[in-house]
Amino acid sequence: MTDSGTNSPFELLGGIEQRIRAHAAPLPEHQPRPGSWKGIAFCLKEWHLVAKQGIVREVLIPSRITRVPGTHPWVIGITNVHGNPLPIVDLADFFWGERLPASQSNRVLLVCQGGVECGVLVSEVMGIRHFLSQDECTEPHPFPAELSDYLVGCNRHQGVLWGEFSMPALVESPGFIDLSMG
Predict the structure, then answer these.
(1) Residue 100 DSSP one-character state
(2) Where are the alpha helices (DSSP H) in the chain?
(3) Cβ neighbourhood burial of 108 (10 Å; 0-12, 13-18, 19+)
(4) Burial of 68 (0-12, 13-18, 19+ CB in 10 A)
(5) Looking at the 3D structure of the chain, how many domains does it have?
(6) Is residue 17 included in any domain, yes or no?
(7) What is the DSSP letter of 53?
(8) Which residues contact 35 (CB under 8 A, 6 or more apart)?
(9) pLDDT digits (tens, 9 = 90+) for 58-100
């Protein structure tokens, strides 16, 4: 109370907050449905892919990248992410030997797997997608052969065919892990 006997704005807000908390219903806990999973949806050229959440730690806007001599052409270079140098790989160049065209929609997926951290440049990120077991496709998929060693499934969701891309398979593959040409 102030000298005039009225509450200060801070005291009024505190009282309102206490009354709201006393009468508020608890939020429902999110329980994932059995057989459901979610992942980071992205495009690599025209292909719709999704990587299970957890291995992709962050989605970054490409920033200043410094070229590193003696690395494969698909290694764009290194950049500073949260104070740590991080190699950035152009995923299209890795698979098809052609750089992704520079675009406002390009994003870098920060991948962390088995002690390896790297950035993977993709055409676009479409956010998080949720999939159910009934979304799984058993039909032959149209994805290019270069992706076959890295696809662990295929899902059809809202009319779009999504290849389930295995970031662990990518990061652990001998051709990817050795960034130097020598």
Answers:
(1) P
(2) 9-23, 91-96, 167-172, 174-177
(3) buried
(4) middle
(5) 1
(6) no
(7) B
(8) 132, 133
(9) 999 998 899 989 999 999 999 999 888 999 999 999 999 999 9
Q: Does residue 24 lie in a domain region?
A: no
Residue with more model confidence, 141 or 63:
63
Q: Which of 99, 100, 74 is nearest to 173 (CA)?
A: 74
- Percentage above 70 pLDDT, the chain: 89
Domain that holds residue 130: 37-177
Name every residue whose Cβ is closer than 8 Å to that of residue 119 and which is 6 or more positions away in sequence: 60, 79, 81, 86, 87, 88, 89, 108, 109, 110, 111
pTM, two decimals, is 0.76
Q: Domain holding 162: CATH number?
A: 2.40.50.180
Give the pair of three-digit tokens for residue 171. Answer: 């990061």
- Looking at residue 68, its amino acid is V
Fill in the amino acid letter for 112: C
Closest C-alpha to 77, from 181, 179, 153, 182: 179
Are 179 and 71 in contact by the 8 Å Cβ rule? The answer is yes
Beta-bridge partners for 52: 39
Give the residue among 124, 123, 79, 132 at the shortest CA–CA distance from 98: 123
CB 49 within 8 A of CB 153: no
Mean pLDDT for the stretch of residues 9-20: 83
SS3 (DSSP) at 159? coil
Tokens standing for 3?
């000298």
